[in-house]
Amino acid sequence: MSSTVPTGTSRFEVFAEPGSYRVVRPTNAEGVIDLINRHGVQIVDLKFTDLPGLWQHFSITLPEVSESLFQNGIGFDGSSIRGFQEIHESDMLLVPDATTAFVDPVCATPTVAIICDVVDPVTHEPYSRDPRYIAKKAERYLRETGLATTCYFGPEVEFFIFDSIRFGQDAHSGYYFVDSSEGEWNTGSDEGAYGGGNLGYQMRYKEGYFPVPPHDTLQDIRSEIVLMLQSIGVQVEVHHHEVATGGQNEIDMRFSTLTRMADNVMLYKYICKNVARKHGKVATFMPKPLFADNASGMHCHQSLWQEERNLFYDASGWALTSDVCRWYIGGLLHHAGALMAFCAPSTNSYKRLVPGYEAPVNLAMSQRNRSAAARIPMYSDSPSARRVEFRCPDPSANAYLAFAAMLMAGLDGIEQKLDPGEPLDRNIYDLPPEEAAAVRQVPASLDAALAALESDHAFLCKGGVFTDDVITTWLEYKRKREIDAVKLRPHPWEFHLYFDV
Question: Which residues are annotated with the PTM O-AMP-tyrosine (predicted)?
């Protein structure tokens, strides 16, 4: 919840949840300047997101901070940013969003960080390839449809913390090595999780959910991440070790509105990576870094609200869901092939999306059932808790684009009243072959997902949310920079399979 500070200080907004930190965020430029003064800040850091989804930044000194910065922006070279401008049109502007300002807990020098929007300096319009702008347009389009006023997202972002990582490839070699003192593969090593010899508390494969310490060596690191996130206004509900051996984790943030939640995902990744580094470890959101164990997903809980009413709830409906909810699910399932181009956007994503590792490859809906792509959580029968959990996305996604795409698919499902099919409340992996053959599955590769996006993206372009330019740029970037790059390189396992042919 949020509330405005009493009279005379409306330049701030208080973000607080029961039992949580009370965090004050600015609402305008004056509030940011006050925040700088109150905390003895010396540097202001401007952050924005490139098209693939990695945070970029540069820092400015205090004399450069004025109200005009928040109106006119500050220039940067857009041609040096992935997925942005060509060299002949490189000048771009960053315009800070005052409501995102926070004292950056990562920096030793007192620093305020602000998330920025990207603006074209010629047209003075928001930049069409700015992921945050696309998310904002999706929320605006939702309101314009009259179907709902708000879309809430609650992603479950999983990640690994390793003790070390090495990788490389050249003309005559290619390798990767990851290590974790928790890893099952270290049961025979001389050094254990605490040094001074192996104490034998490594987690067995697929048994990381939920042993206590000493098996779980990352409890305090996760707690530190949680407290740091809450100190900057990101509310967290729970944290725990995840299924895989070797340091898989999950920290669940409290749901929020679409763009704000995407901002929070960026903050989450930033804090996780930097806290891990502080402890001499490394955090990765790569979906499938380990062979033969569970991968990292980003299950996305979502619901539509009309003011204070949850449109996904119906006391008499299947699993307490409304027609609107089921049509929304119909849109997610119908457009799932295209969605995967944004929700599972790496070649590594499709090492996760295979049967047998709790991977949601089956395009069906269910209640409680984690083998279905769309699940209705049944922990509570409260109207406010009714939501759909779309389980296909993973944390390599650009959250701004993935959330916007899912909303647009769901809205198209409502508009067309798309039937999601009969619920499958059984383990879909154990269906008889004739029944299993009737269940559609997600694309088996990034190649296939991009082909699906190429043929099915009209739903994304409604209301100008995604543009043809964004779709074309995404397809070209992924094909040339990622798919072709992987295709060109020999895989280590190919030597095992083919060296003696």
Answer: 429
Quote the CA–CA distance of 467 and 465 in Å, as a whole number.
Answer: 6
Catalytic residue among 64, 77, 144, 422: 77
| Half-sphere exposure (Cβ direction) of 40: Cα atoms closer than 13 Å | 3
Active site residue 182: no
Our answer to whether residue 67 is catalytic in this structure is no
Any bridge partners for residue 248, and if so which?
A: 160
Is residue 482 annotated as a catalytic residue, yes or no?
Answer: no
pTM of the model: 0.95
My answer on whether omega of the bond before 289 falls inside 30° of 0, hence cis, is no
Q: What are phi and psi of 313, to 5 degrees?
A: -100, 135
pLDDT tens, residue order, the chain (501 aa)? 333 333 334 465 555 443 445 677 899 999 999 999 999 999 999 999 999 999 999 999 999 999 999 999 999 999 999 999 998 889 999 999 999 999 999 999 999 999 999 999 999 999 999 999 999 999 999 999 999 999 999 999 999 999 999 999 999 999 999 999 999 999 998 875 556 678 899 999 999 999 999 999 999 999 999 999 999 999 999 999 999 999 999 999 999 999 999 999 999 999 999 999 999 999 999 999 999 999 999 999 999 999 999 999 999 999 999 999 999 999 999 999 999 999 999 999 999 998 755 689 999 999 977 789 999 999 999 999 999 999 999 999 999 999 999 999 999 999 999 999 999 888 787 788 888 888 999 999 999 999 999 999 999 999 999 999 999 999 999 999 999 999 999 999 999 999 999
CA proximity to 161, closest of 242, 95, 64, 228: 242
Give strand pairing partners of 23.
15
**242 carries a ligand binding annotation:** yes
Cα(402)–Cα(185) distance, integer angstroms? 35
Residue 370 is among the residues annotated as catalytic for this protein: yes
Fold of 2-126: Ubiquitin-like (UB roll) (3.10.20)
Q: Is 301 a known ligand-binding residue?
A: yes
172 has binding-site annotation: no
Question: One of 370, 426, 440, 479 is an active-site residue; which one?
Answer: 370
User: What residues does CATH 3.10.20.70 cover in the chain?
Assistant: 2-126
- Of the options 3.30.70.120, 3.30.590.10, 3.30.465.10, 3.40.190.10, the CATH number for the domain spanning 150-159+251-277+284-498: 3.30.590.10
For residues 115 and 97, is the Cβ–Cβ distance under 8 A? yes
How far is 420 from 125, CA to CA, in rounded Å? 38
Q: Specify the residue for token string 């409680």.
A: 368
Q: Is 191 a catalytic residue?
A: no
242 flagged as catalytic? yes
| Coil/strand/helix, residue 489 | coil
Of residues 130, 182, 242, 394, which has the active-site annotation?
Answer: 242
Q: Which of 216, 252, 293, 389 is catalytic?
A: 389
